[in-house]
Each structure stands twice: as C-alpha cells, then as structure tokens.
Amino acid sequence: MKIYTKTGDEGTTGLFGGQRVTKDAARIEAYGTIDELNAVLGVVRTLGCAPHRDSELATLQRELFILGADLATPLGKESSRIRRIQSDDVERLERVIDDLESQLPPLSSFILPGGCPAGAQLHIARTVCRRAERGVVHLGHEEQIGAEPLRYLNRLADLLFVLARAVNQDESSPESTWP
Fold it and tell me: Radius of gyration (Cα) for the chain, nearest Å?
C-alpha cells in the first residue's frame, strides 16, 4: 500500500463511511490535535520514564487512537472495526488519577510547568490535551459526537498534570510553585 493517495491534494480528506470534508473542518481539527497529543506522548516515552509510567503512557497512546477513530467516525456510521470511547475509559482515568494523587504531596499552590525532561514534556502534553478538548467542544457545537470524548479529554488533561508531578517526583525533581 502506498503512503500517498493524492486524494487530499485539493484540501479534502475522507471520513469513515466515505464522506469527504475539508482538511480544516472542525472534525479534522479535533482528531488531528488528538494525533498531535499522541505524538507528544511518544516523545515523553523516549525520555525514559519508569516502566510502570511507560506502561501507562502506552495505554494512553492506544486509547488516543481509539478516540481519534471515534472522532473520525460520524455518529450513525457505526462499524465493528471502530470502538468508541466509553464511560469505562473515563472511569479508568479517574482510578489512575486517584492512585497517583494518593502518592503525591497535596497541592497548596499552582505548579509551574517544568521539572525533569519527561515531566516538562508531560506538561506540554497537558496543554495539547486542553487544546484538543477545546476542538472537541467546537466540533460538538457543529455535530453530534456523544458525551464521552469530551469527558475523556477533560480527565486526561487532569491525569497528564498528575502524571507530570509523579514523574518529577520519581526523578527527585522539585516542583516550582507560583506565586
């Protein structure tokens, strides 16, 4: 299979089900930012986290592929090949957040992004996640997408913040606070 198809040369791309849309459509922007977030998590994984952190990042990357496919597939174009993000996925993120927070000092002020390279990159991932969330909100104003993609991204941004703190703690990298 060739990597290039030439079908997008005029600024359109295909959705599952055959519909063609412009590459700047809200749906494309939303799942494109999910793809960017997945790439940022790939960078984090190259920076050498503890194995249990790397395992969680790999799980998140797989879930982001599910979310991207979900967003690339308009509701009503169901397929057995496309799994949509479910409430179970959101609940899994909540369990991970709760577990991580139980191992971290409580927050008493804002944390400035930074720390070790992986921790700092996770803060970047968090901001990309929030941008993806804004894109999904925008898409939801234009089309029905269901509630779970937005809930998932909201929890994921929280998880990425807590995970940045945990990775920095793993590396004995102190947190800088504001003010």
Answer: 18
Q: Token digits for 65? A: 């592929």
pTM score of the predicted model: 0.93
List all residues 6 or more positions away from 130 whose beta carbon is below 8 Å from its beta carbon: 157
Q: How many CB atoms lie within 10 A of CB 41?
A: 22
Residue 17 has pLDDT above 80, yes or no: no
Residue pair 106/169 in contact by the 8 Å Cβ criterion: no
Domains of the chain, first to last: 21-73+81-101+112-173 (1.20.1200.10)
Reading the block at residue 176, the tokens are 């800088």
Predicted local confidence at residue 103, as pLDDT: 96
State the burial class of residue 134 (Cβ atoms within 10 Å of its Cβ: 0-12, 13-18, 19+): middle
Per-residue pLDDT for 112 more than 80? yes
For residue 77, give every residue at least 6 positions away whose Cβ sits within 8 Å of its Cβ, in sequence order, or none: 15, 16, 17
**Could you tell me the CA-to-CA distances from 31 to 24, 79, 105, 114, 162 in Å, in that order?**
11, 18, 34, 27, 24
Tell me: cis bond preceding 105? Omega within 30 of 0 counts.
no
